[in-house]
Design brief:
97 residues, mainly alpha, 2 helices
């Protein structure tokens, strides 16, 4: 409380502390909800982006083609694993805060 204000102003300010605290809590909850919505939308986009490749019936018609498909698959797996690890790590850091 600031000592420069007359007691009536200080009293009125004190009356606002509870509503301001409630509002702060609501805003924090809203941030968490919007962050969750954003993250889940991002995950759904990521899944839809990879779904055609996962559902592909293309198996290759020669040894070279099959080896190329296997290499592409391994690259996607390693990239996806890195992204997942980063996401889990960042989600864990958010929970700690």
């Amino acid at each position: 409380m600031c000592h420069y204000y007359p007691p009536i102003c200080a009293c009125r300010y004190c009356e606002l502390e509870d509503p301001m605290g409630l509002r702060h809590g609501q805003l924090e909850d809203s941030v968490q909800l919007h962050q969750f919505t954003h993250d889940s939308n991002e995950e759904m986009r990521w899944v839809k982006e990879r779904e055609p490749a996962a559902n592909s019936a293309l198996l290759g018609d020669s040894l070279t083609t099959v080896q190329g498909l296997i290499k592409k698959h391994q690259v996607r797996e390693s990239v996806d694993c890195e992204i997942t690890c980063l996401y889990i790590s960042s989600a864990h850091n958010v929970q700690l805060q």
